[in-house]
Design brief:
This protein is mostly beta strands. Strands 1, 2, 3, 4, 5, 6, 7, 8 and 9 form a nine-stranded antiparallel beta sheet that branches. It is elongated and about 70 Å long. It is built from one helix and nine strands. The chain has one helix at about 1-20; strands at about 45-60, 70-85, 90-95, 95-105, 120-140, 145-160, 180-195, 200-210, 225-240. β7 (about 180-195) and β8 form a beta hairpin. The two termini are about 25 Å apart.
């Protein structure tokens, strides 16, 4: 359903903007209904829709088989606040709601000498993030109705689905993760100038800085004992409208 939604959005945008993007005439009064270029405004506002794909990066204490992470595409939606510094630099705040699910599959080698069932080998990690990145956008010179850019910065996220305070752990089927997390982000995209708005597709990578694993009470727990650190990494595909 998420892929279908993304295809419909792209098709509609292509149909309405094809004539504007691929002609030599420059859209002078773009993105503001003919009242002036929003690129010259000190502050600009917008919103984004997108798809995310989250993963975990593990560091281990012992050389056992890797924990396999099954990823599922998630959904992203949020707002944009853009502060213009000059023609090539912008400071951007993008608070949003991101929803994703990951499943962890353990090898039986983690349970040597321990009685287990098939359900013990799988843990589901659901995450609902209030995600707030602060980004620096570095753009090239505008070429007709295109303007490529790179973007990077830091972000923090509050995981509303975190069970960090839950007294139950994996012994009771609860895989726990931290509530507050910090990341750095890098990406690129292209601004497309249209008569009534500015459309921006972008791709961005996210990399966790802090360890997100909440360890079990049992120091020999097969689920957490061998994990030295567990950090999120992910990819965003966002479609921005300003």
């Amino acid at each position: 359903m998420k892929h279908f939604f993304a295809c419909i959005v792209l098709l509609l945008l292509f149909q309405t903007s094809n004539a504007q993007l691929f002609k030599k005439e420059k859209v002078t009064y773009d993105a503001n209904s003919g009242n002036g270029s929003t690129d010259n405004n000190l502050l600009r506002w917008g919103y984004f829709l997108g798809i995310n794909n989250y993963d975990f990066n593990f560091d281990y204490n012992e050389d056992l088989r890797d924990i396999y992470v099954k990823r599922s595409p998630g959904f992203s939606v949020g707002l944009i606040g853009n502060l213009r510094i000059n023609d090539y630099l912008d400071l951007r705040l993008e608070p949003g709601l991101l929803i994703t699910t990951r499943e962890l599959y353990y090898s039986q080698t983690y349970f040597d000498g321990v009685a287990f069932t098939e359900s013990d080998l799988i843990r589901e990690v659901k995450s609902t993030y209030i995600h707030v990145p602060l980004l620096l956008k570095v753009s090239t010179k505008r070429i007709n109705n295109f303007k490529p850019f790179i973007v990077g910065g830091f972000s923090t996220a509050l995981n509303l689905s975190s069970n960090e305070e839950n007294p139950n752990d994996n012994a009771n089927g609860q895989f726990r993760t931290t509530k507050n997390n910090v990341f750095y982000e890098l990406g690129f995209g292209i601004d497309f100038y249209l008569y009534n708005f500015k459309f921006t597709p972008s791709i961005r990578g996210l990399f966790g800085i802090n360890d997100e694993l909440v360890r079990d009470e049992d120091p020999n727990s097969p689920w957490t004992n061998n994990i030295n650190s567990m950090k999120t990494r992910g990819v965003f595909v966002n479609f921005t409208f300003q």
